[in-house]
Each structure stands twice: as C-alpha cells, then as structure tokens.
Amino acid sequence: GAARESGGGLVQPGGSLRLSCAASGFTFRYYAMSWYRQAPGRERELVAAISSSDTADYVEPVKGRFTISRDNAKSTVYLQMNSLKPEDTAVYYCKAQQYYIDGPYWGKGTLVTVST
C-alpha cells in the first residue's frame, strides 16, 4: 500500500488550504485514515482521523477550523484547513490503517507554511 499527500504551500494567517491524500494498493474503504503533522523540532502529532464508517475526530487545537473527509470512490482523504495560524506550520502526513489487520501506510508528507 501507498499514500501520497498534496496541496501544501505557503498561506497567510487566516487563510485556507485543502490537503489531499491519494491511496493505492489496498481497499481504501476498509481503512481508517488520519492526518498527522510534525513541526520543526517537535514530535509528530495526530491532527484528525476518520474511520471506515465515516466517523471523524479532531484534536482540540484544530476543532472548528479543520475538517477531515473521505471519498471512497477516489480512494482519497482530504483535510480542509481554515483560519490557519502560524502554529499550524508543519509537514502534514496521512496514514492509512486497518487496525489489527494491515498497515499503517504513511505518505511522505506535504509542507504547510503559515506566515506573512
């Protein structure tokens, strides 16, 4: 299995970005998908997750600003990020996992920079 992120870039504070993660090599609809991020000098941390049954969950710092969604027909998971802050600057990674059965599969990441 494989995952490939896209959509990162430079955005001003208060702006928006939509990240995409295209999956391949496994039956996407059975896998839980999640987004992580890693800022310089910090540990990788969970940002948002969505189950195979479409239940979404978020960490507190992004609640109300980020939305995770999935399109099983396209084998793609998205992360819509609004009201971006400088502290959201990080490399964003997606992960695919079918718990206790297969994975995880990680992408190589996409860089998001929030700055003036």
Walk me through what this model shows.
The protein is an all-beta fold. Helices cover 0% and strands 54% of the residues. The protein has no helices and eleven strands. It has strands at residues 2-6, 9-11, 17-24, 32-38, 45-50, 56-58, 66-71, 76-81, 90-98, 102-106, 110-114. The strands form two sheets. Strands 2, 4, 5, 6, 9, 10 and 11 form a seven-stranded mixed beta sheet that branches. Strands 1-3-8-7 form a four-stranded antiparallel beta sheet, with no helix packed on it. The protein is globular and about 40 Å long.
Task: Using brief descriptors, characterize the structure shown.
116 residues, seven-stranded mixed beta sheet, mainly beta
| Sequence of secondary-structure elements | EEEEEEEEEEE
- Main sheet, how many strands, which sense, barrel? 7 strands, mixed
What's the shape? globular
* Overall pLDDT level: 97
The radius of gyration over CA amounts to 13 Å
The total count of strands amounts to: 11
Which percent range fits the helix content? Answer: under 10%
Number of helices: 0
The rounded distance between the terminal residues' Cα atoms is 37 Å
Runs in which pLDDT lies below 50 for 5 or more consecutive residues are none
* SS class: mainly beta
Strand content: over 45%
